[in-house]
Amino acid sequence: MFMNFRRIHKCQVVQLLTACMVLCVVMVSWEELDHHVVSHMRSYTYRYLVNSYDFLNSSFNITSNRHRKDGSTNGLVTYPYLINHPGKCAWGDGKSGDDVLLLLFVKSSPENFERRQAIRDTWGNESFVFSELGATVRMVFALGVDAKRRSRVQRALLQEDQTYGDLIQQDFLDTFHNLTAKLITQFHWVHEYCPQARFLMSADDDIFVHMPNLVKYLRQLLSNKSGVKDFWVGHVHRGAPPVRRKESKYHVPYDLYPWPSYPDYTAGAGYVVSGDVASKIYQATQVLNSSIYIDDVFMGICAKAMGVSPQEHVYFSGEGKAPYHPCIYDHMITSHGHATDVRSLWQAATDPAVYGKARGFMGNLYCTAVRAMMLCRPYYQNSYSCMAAFT
């Protein structure tokens, strides 16, 4: 009896110590656990069971007296243009509108000249798209003012624009917390200077766009006799919870957004909307305040208020970089995280030999197997989903 009692006692002590260790770990990492598990459970419950965002119009009305971190009122703020090109979408006479298939609005920072130049030389090359693909595409870069207000940076921007004529700059500091101001700039500029564009694409300056595939995709949409309405496509985030960790740059406090879930939105790295949606978002920015400084989320709030929902496209990348392979290039639309390799990727992805890999039954079978092995691994889930392998 004495030996059995000792064994039981030791077992209980071990269990107690184990429980204490687990409790300590949970307490230490609770905030992280709450963000990744509890907040997502709350968010998905709200998104799929309650699924009501009726508070948007009332809570984000422009008369709201909320304040930014810098203390300014979150009403409708319009910034003057420092650099502008009102005739970018017009013919030479500056009056007649050109038939613009796609307006590319690339969000860039003042110091990112090399990224802008790489885009001009590759997927953003208007002349290439017109001569090789027969499509009229216009591209501009959206900029604020250098955060350190360095005069040499502004002089360099003026010289750059004099050479290329594709910069749109407004007088606000180009910082993370002003990304929403940059988003508002793009929709106001489209409304004012390029309303005839069939589609608008918003993109970061570290994104790669497979322009031949994108143009083909948009033309297929236009071939539908019913027309293209309420179209918003990209990598969709559904039921995403606000980040409450103060150390995160995506931190959103409860007093700014108290609800457990954001409306559905697309990753801001790259998405496409039809002309009518661009007009609706413009209208929304006129009546909703811009207190949310995460531009992707603000886009979702505006779209939800206007009755527009995002559509998932498996070959629009999220925050991740797509794998490099000819069988991926054959379907690729966007890939994120290309600050230095845009030129080499463009050369590889648009090589005519790429398309020969997937022709015929055996070629399709081979590429499906390759894509499945690549995309169905967790590493690439933030770029293309596993479903993309079979699409």
Automatic annotation (TrEMBL):
Q: In which pathway does it act?
A: Protein modification; protein glycosylation
Q: Which GO terms describe its cellular component?
A: Golgi membrane
Q: Which UniProt keywords apply?
A: Glycoprotein, Glycosyltransferase, Golgi apparatus, Membrane, Signal-anchor, Transferase, Transmembrane, Transmembrane helix
Q: In its UniProt record, which GO terms are filed under biological process?
A: protein O-linked glycosylation; sphingolipid biosynthetic process
Q: Which InterPro entries match?
A: Glyco_trans_31
- In what way does this protein cross or attach to the membrane? Single-pass type II membrane protein
Give the subcellular location: Golgi apparatus membrane
Q: What is this protein called?
A: Hexosyltransferase
